[in-house]
Design goal:
The complex is a heterodimer of chains A (165) and B (235).
Chain A (H helix, E strand, L loop, with lengths): L4 H10 L11 E4 L13 E3 H12 L4 E3 L8 E5 L4 E8 L5 H19 L10 E10 L2 E10 H19 L1
Parallel strand pairs in A: 1-3, 2-4, 5-6
Antiparallel strand pairs in A: 1-5, 6-7
Helix pairs in contact in A: 3-4
Chain B lengths: L5 H20 L3 H23 L4 H26 L9 H22 L5 H21 L3 E14 L16 E2 L2 E2 L2 E14 L8 E2 L4 E3 L6 E3 L16
Antiparallel strand pairs in B: 1-4, 1-5, 2-3, 6-7
Helix pairs in contact in B: 1-2, 1-3, 2-3, 3-4, 4-5
Classes of the chains: A alpha/beta (165), B alpha+beta (235).
Chain lengths: 165, 235
């Protein structure tokens, strides 16, 4: 996959070897990457670490900040909200699999933790999704319900697939 | 005697489960609890012998059976405590039953994925009814929800940084449950939420009082629990 100018900028900012990212479809990065320039302050969310493992298990070519050589801290919030950190999508063909993994994560979260009497069927998702593929670049800073989040990812995939036709 | 093969162990455990149901249905709570206790003590001390064996299905079955039995033991304790019909008027008993209910439910729901049984479903339904009773009597509640920062987290299966291995927390690998063990823990913040990750961290109304030292309220509540499905194995 081609390296975009956004990715060059990112690798310079994070002081990582750009060749390390070229083979991956998705990169899971610290949640506060846009908020701090100090590498020592970067933190990965526990949910993002789990998502990366599950995505790999599903066959998505992905990596995380630790594997890229960043020495980040890990933050765990013991609430029902899901914090997915920064998700850098380099290949929209990985999106259907990512949506499938996320759907399972959201269903498990709701089934296990949300009290059914409250009639709540989705959990709140916090994430920064960045799409950087060829000449296409888009960024979504998201805080909202899980169903809409999945619809947005499906929409991004559809738009890119249509654009490629 | 230790059961040395999976079929032997399954027969042994099936008989034990039947005996548990017999005692439990007749409200012989002391006998039911003793049965669970003896099984856990026997296999907890012997589990290392199995861990060194190469029979992974046997190891996994023993681990699930231990977790199931601990869930049943928690359930029997709840049954004993709720025999008094006005248990919910006693604050201490209410808090204790709430914690036991979540421990039992988490363990039995985990075990049901491997050990489907109608009697187990009935026990779980009793726990769901108890949860509904709590909701009717005390409302949905509010909970503490801390944010915690770790320097890193190691995997209990391979001891590597969890970001560099493929093991998933809560899954069984070769007779052991994968957990993440944090290193360098710092509290970041404490939030009060309506839907927590861990319902054990409930703030009960009787533990909230006017602050005698100034404005606002003073509350005492559990902020973080060390619960894990298999923590009783290491006590």
């Amino acid at each position: 996959m081609l390296i975009t100018s956004d990715e060059k900028e990112l690798s310079t900012k994070l002081k990582i070897d750009i060749t390390k990212i070229k083979d991956f479809q998705i990169i899971f990065l610290p949640e506060n990457i846009n908020l701090t320039s100090d590498l020592e302050d970067l933190s990965d969310s526990m949910d993002s670490i789990m998502l990366c493992k599950l995505a790999k298990e599903k066959g998505i070519l992905c990596t995380n900040s630790y594997e890229l050589g960043l020495n980040t801290k890990i933050i765990e919030r013991r609430s029902i909200d899901i914090w997915l950190g920064t998700i850098w999508i380099r290949d929209h063909f990985a999106l259907p699999l990512l949506v499938s993994v996320l759907s399972k994560v959201f269903v498990d979260t709701v089934q296990n933790k949300v009290n059914p009497s409250k009639g709540k069927e989705s959990c709140t998702v916090h994430s920064n999704v960045k799409l950087s593929e060829g000449k296409i670049s888009a960024e979504i800073d998201y805080k909202g319900d899980s169903e809409t989040f999945l619809k947005i990812l499906e929409g991004v995939n559809q738009k890119n697939t249509d654009a490629g036709k | 005697m230790l059961e040395n093969s999976l079929p032997e162990f399954e027969i042994f455990f099936s008989d034990l489960f039947k005996a548990f149901l017999y005692f439990s249905s007749r409200k012989y709570f002391t006998d039911a609890e003793a049965l669970c206790f003896l099984f856990i003590e026997k296999y907890k001390s012997k589990i290392k012998l199995y861990i060194s064996s190469k029979d992974e299905p046997l190891k996994n079955t023993i681990l699930v059976s231990l977790i199931l039995t601990k869930g049943l033991q928690d359930f029997i304790q709840i049954s004993k405590l709720t025999q008094n019909r006005i248990w919910h008027k006693n604050n201490q008993a209410t808090e204790k039953i709430w914690l036991l209910m979540w421990d039992s439910k988490d363990r039995l729901e985990f075990a049901r994925k491997f050990f489907y049984n109608e009697a187990l479903e009935t026990i779980l339904n009793n726990l769901y009814e108890l949860e509904n009773f709590f909701r009717d009597e005390f409302g949905d509640g509010i909970y503490t929800s801390p944010g915690i920062i770790f320097d890193n987290i190691s995997c209990t299966i391979c001891n590597r940084d969890t970001r560099s291995c493929g093991h998933i927390s809560g899954r069984i690998y070769d007779g052991q449950i994968c957990w993440y063990s944090p290193v360098g823990v710092q509290a970041d913040h404490l939030a009060i939420v309506k839907i927590p990750k861990d319902p054990r961290c409930r703030i009960w109304p009787w533990n909230v009082q006017d602050n005698p030292d100034g404005e606002g309220l003073k509350a005492s509540a559990i902020i973080l629990t060390s619960f894990s499905l298999d923590n009783f194995l290491y006590e």
